[in-house]
Each structure stands twice: as C-alpha cells, then as structure tokens.
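Input structure tokens:
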C-alpha cells in the first residue's frame, strides 16, 4: 500500500478526549477515527489489524470444532421477554421500533437468538454436542463510553455458544473453548491472566475471565504467587486472618462525644488510631428490608459478596431517612451495639476487641468495643474486597497481589436457564425429553486489538506484535523524486508481494524526519529505509521497531533476511 494514496493521516499531538495511552495512539496513528461518543470508524490500517485478530480467532475456533454462523444484530423484543432479560438489561440495551411499531432491540449479546434457533434445530442426542460462533457487531448503550474501543456503544465481538446432552459433557465443551482462548490470546501477543469470575446477570455456575494485564485496565484482579489462584476482585475470596486486638481491649465499651465526625478519617484522627480500628457500619436494604453490614474502616464493602452472604436478590445502600429510622442516628454514627437489625460482619472482624464504632446517636462513638461481647452478629462472612497482602484462600503461605487488567475474553457455563425459556430440548438415547446444557463464550475483538496496543507501546508510538501488525514491513523511500531509488523500492515491494507480504510503502514527498516519526507511531515491526546514501553501499537500512540498532543489508539479501525474521516470529 502506498501511503500517499491511502488516506492514512497521522496526528502530531495527543487528541484531547483520549485518556488511555492506547486510545491516543490509535487515534494519532490514524488507525481509528471518532464519529461521535463511543462510535469509531476503522481506517485502513486499523481495519487490517482487526482482520488479523479475526483471522486468528477463526482459525482457533474452527480448530476447536466450533462452526461459524452470522445472526442478525436486530432482534425482536419478544425473545428478550421470553428469557426475562428485557427488564434486566434495562437502559443498557438500545431499544427501537420498526415502521409497524414493533419493538426491536440492537443485540448486546445473542443467547436468546441462538437458543431460539437451536430449539428448532436439535431433535436428538445424535445432533449434540454443537458449538456455534459468530464475529459480529454488538451494541450497548454505555452510560459513559470511553477509552476508545475499550468501552464503545458499537463494538465487535466473537460470541460462541455450546450445546450438550448433560452437565459433564458441557464441561468438555467449556474446556475446549477455554483452551482455544489461551491460544488465541497468545497468538495475538497478549500477556493475559485467567481468573475466576462472577457469573453476574448472565446466570450460570462456572466462569473464567481472560484479562490482558495493563496498569490502566478497568478491572481489578488478585493473584496468589504461591499457587495458581487468581480471581476477579469482584469475586476473589480471602483466607482467614488472625483476630485483631487493639489497646484497652478488655475494658467496658464507653460512649465518647465526637461532634460532626462522620468519616473514617475524621474519627481515626480524633482518636489518634489506625483506620482499621474503626468498625464501619453500613445500612443496606436487602430485598427491601434493612440490614447492617460491618467491615474494618480501612476496607471497601463488596456488595456482591454481601448480597450472596445475605441471600438477597436486590441490595442497595439505604438512604439518609432509612438510616435515621433504623439506627436512630444520622449517617456516620451507626454502630452494631444495640442495633436491632440483622448484622452481617466481615470475617476479619471475628474476635475484634478494643475497637471503635458509631454510637447510634448523633455525634457519638463507642470506644473499647468487643464485637462479639457488645453486639449480636447474625453471621461472619467474607464481605470486603480483597487487597494486596491478604492471605490466599487456597494455599497456606501465599499472600494475594493486586493487579489491573482489561477483560478481553469470558467463558461461562450457562446450564439450562435459556434452554428452559426457549424449550430447547432433545430426545436422549432412551427417547426421553431433556433440556440441552449450554455454555457461552465471548471475546471482545475490537477491545483485544486496543489491549494489544496498551501492552505494546513506547514514547514514539505503537509496537505491534508481528501477528497483528497492519503491515509487518514498512518501507521508507527517502528521495521519492529519485528514479533509481523508486525503482529499487518497487522491486523490493514486488518481491515481498509474491511472498504474500504487502508492504506499507511511504513514498510521500515529505522530509525524512516526518517519515521516521510516522513509521515509529504506526509501529510496523520491520522498517526498511532506501535512500541515495544506502544505495551508495548497494544496501537498504533494516531496523526492527523493538530495537534501537539498525544495519545495512545488501539489496540482493533484504528479501530473504526479512522473510526469515517474519517466519521465525510467526512460529513463536
Ligand atoms: Zn495461594
């Protein structure tokens, strides 16, 4: 491809709206262009990368026995009513209507469509197992689209769905996808961690996320370096810790006046104590009934864990009025002692003595609280988010380490939830009707592309992994008005083309400095420079984007040399 003809336009300065390095670089390198909030065009270079990601996915999905289909993005509302997800998805789903005023949605996912199809297709156990996939545009009405392709309103996903005769068989399909995902992300050059994940509103009972590690990632994860345990922070369990005893831990609880001190910081400063000495008391409505939940002052409540511990379907933090009614005190002064609500306490609070709590009275706190002596606890459970240094829940000696990542893939074992809604049954070997057991498997295709940039850049621009690069080779012709230079460049391009490698050829009438800068920004792994100076040596200058050094390679050898670099890299 000739740069002067192909509408590749790079930007000198960082675009204002981009926060993430990869987003800035994708825009600056002319890979994508913004149409409006959360909507992007793939420009020629970006589209080539996208096609490379798709190709790797297709190869590995097909190898794992999955079969490709393509379902409509536009879906009738009725199928979402059948699964009871029309309400669950809420405003996150784009809802429209056709000219006959029939309600439609733009699909954020395709469990409903695929199960509807399968319920008509599958009659006998002989037709199972089956795994079907598609690579398709999805829609989500994000509250705050941001980070470019990471959180967009329209994005490209690979979604796959497996159908099996039973639960054990479904595990086999799950494992096949799990393994294929590992290969896909390795081939894309991504460093990923596989973590246990919450099944959330999708339902199901087994779930893993594939996280591309990145400091700027939106997701938190915890890993134990001593064993293989790793989990999304939403789900990560913590091992048991020693009970905490603070000074004066045998004394009687005593109220102390704390005028206007509501926050952990205000209270711990006033008592000159560490924040974990304060037991934070939060009032929630669990299925519309008030409950209290306790965690140490230096911790953050994980609402998902709390909901699970309480067994509540809905859980919301109570408003000021409810707090006042439930505790007799304004927000900031709730405490477990004397509170007539079911009280759930974080497991690390078991045996807590000498602690501080709110006094259930305005401007009052208690000191010397012995939690189990001074309050009635319904249950101790793991309620707080895990943090670096927490004991590993699986092995004895490990301490968890927190990291950040970008969720690029997710596998779920769904079970029979959708099969029930859509009556997706088959006749087993005894002629008995059974529900198919499902799994679903997603890869954020456009997100994977940007995650690769987030993991591979320097101050000059992108460093594409060989497998994803828009072009593996970029060639700069430094004197485009010199016939000899251009003739040799054309020969080199032709030779690569006959080996199946298109070259990004910068023959623009630009200063060499501009061409070098743009080549670094776009980030093709191999750069060849042909100039009057190099031709005096009968050579071209060869440099890898990932290295500082360059060398002169005779024109006659350049093709073979570069192809061997490519072949070696692509085998890895
Ligand atoms: Zn461990």
């Amino acid at each position: 491809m000739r740069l002067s003809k192909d509408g590749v336009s790079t930007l000198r300065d960082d675009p204002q709206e981009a926060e993430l390095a990869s987003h800035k670089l994708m825009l600056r390198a002319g890979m994508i262009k913004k149409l409006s909030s959360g909507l992007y065009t793939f420009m020629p270079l970006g589209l080539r990368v996208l096609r490379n990601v798709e190709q790797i996915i297709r190869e590995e999905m097909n190898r794992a026995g999955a079969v490709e289909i393509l379902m409509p993005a536009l879906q009738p509302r009725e199928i979402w009513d059948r699964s009871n997800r029309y309400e669950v998805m809420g405003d996150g789903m784009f809802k429209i209507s056709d000219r006959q005023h029939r309600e439609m949605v733009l699909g954020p996912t395709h469990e409903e469509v695929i199960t509807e199809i399968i319920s008509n297709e599958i009659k006998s156990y002989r037709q199972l197992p089956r795994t079907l996939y598609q690579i398709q545009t999805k829609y989500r009405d994000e509250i705050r689209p941001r980070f470019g392709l990471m959180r967009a309103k329209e994005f490209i996903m690979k979604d796959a769905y497996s159908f099996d005769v039973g639960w054990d068989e479904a595990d086999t399909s799950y494992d096949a996808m799990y393994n294929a995902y590992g290969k896909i992300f390795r081939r894309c050059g991504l460093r990923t961690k596989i973590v246990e994940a919450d099944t959330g509103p999708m339902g199901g009972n087994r779930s893993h996320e594939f996280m591309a590690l990145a400091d700027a990632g939106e997701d938190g994860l915890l890993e134990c370096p001593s064993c293989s345990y790793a989990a999304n922070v939403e789900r990560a369990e913590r091992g048991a810790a020693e009970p905490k005893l603070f000074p004066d831990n045998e004394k009687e609880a005593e109220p102390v006046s704390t005028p206007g001190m509501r926050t952990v910081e205000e209270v711990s400063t006033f008592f000159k104590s560490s924040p974990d000495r304060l037991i934070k008391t939060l009032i929630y409505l669990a299925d519309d009934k008030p409950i209290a939940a306790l965690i140490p002052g230096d911790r953050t409540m994980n609402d998902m864990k709390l909901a699970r511990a309480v067994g509540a379907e809905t859980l919301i933090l109570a408003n000021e009025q409810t707090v006042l009614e439930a505790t007799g005190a304004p927000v900031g002064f709730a405490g477990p002692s004397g509170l007539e609500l079911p009280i759930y306490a974080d497991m690390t609070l078991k045996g807590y003595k000498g602690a501080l709590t709110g006094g259930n009275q305005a401007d009052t706190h208690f000191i010397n609280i012995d939690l189990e002596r001074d309050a009635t606890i319904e249950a101790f459970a793991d309620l707080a988010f895990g943090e670096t240094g927490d004991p590993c829940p699986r092995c004895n000696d490990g301490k968890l380490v927190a990291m950040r990542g970008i969720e690029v893939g997710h596998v779920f074992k769904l079970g029979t939830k959708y099969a029930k809604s859509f009556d997706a049954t088959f006749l087993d070997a005894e002629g008995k009707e059974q529900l198919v057991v499902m799994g679903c498997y997603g890869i954020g295709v456009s997100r994977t592309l940007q995650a690769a940039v987030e993991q591979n850049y320097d101050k000059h621009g992108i460093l594409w992994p060989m497998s994803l690069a828009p072009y593996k080779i970029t060639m700069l012709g430094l004197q485009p008005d010199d016939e000899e230079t251009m003739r040799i460049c054309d020969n080199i391009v032709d030779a690569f083309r006959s080996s199946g490698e298109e070259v990004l050829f910068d023959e623009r009438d630009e200063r060499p400095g501009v061409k070098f800068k743009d080549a670094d920004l776009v980030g093709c792994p191999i750069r060849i420079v042909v100039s009057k100076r190099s031709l005096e040596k009968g050579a071209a200058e060869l440099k890898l984007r990932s290295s500082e050094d360059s060398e002169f390679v005779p024109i006659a050898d350049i093709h073979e040399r570069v192809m061997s670099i490519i072949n070696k890299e692509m085998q890895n």
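Residues 224, 226-227, 229, 392, 394-395, 398 surround zinc ion (CB under 6 Å). The mean pLDDT is 94.
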